[in-house]
Model the fold of this input.
Amino acid sequence: MEGKIITVSREFGSGGRTIAKEIAKRLGIPYYDKEIIKEVAEKTGFNPEYVEEAGEHAPGKSLFSFGLGGSVGLSTSDFLWAMQRQVILEIAQKGPCVIVGRCADYILKDNPDAVHIFIHADMDFKIDRVVRLYGESEKKPEARINDKNKKRAVNYKHFTNREWGKSQNYHIALNSKALGIEKCIEAILAIVTE
Done:
């Protein structure tokens, strides 16, 4: 697998992160998820929790603006997007890896070595996973899932002008309930190791 970069976008609760981690492990290549947040936080001086929240949810209005290299001021959301984009491009230049979320599929859309994957699942499957992995909360599991996915979709649309989860934006879209986590992993490995 020379030069393959695998981006994994996923619905909350679909098992996309689990699938991505296992692909990286089996291929023996770096896995990037929270590492991107940490790097953006280090480059910007923002708190990692803030970077995580701002980088995956609907952009909001900001009282602050930043100038990059004499450019016109950017909102906090746009500034963090620019830094996240830079970090992802740097990661991709290092070689084969798996990158989870953060609009990496869009950022690397013109990279011929990148394979873009979207993992989705039926609601009952996602509810079961969310409750098992993250426990109960004040908000019902279905509402948590819908809220998180809606925020991801708005963020993606804002920065990419594309529809999050639309199959045309990815090389592969897999239903993790229908196939199972292991079959999704096997299918992706079969495609990227050809």
Remarks:
- The first helix runs from residue 16 to 27.
- The radius of gyration is 17 Å.
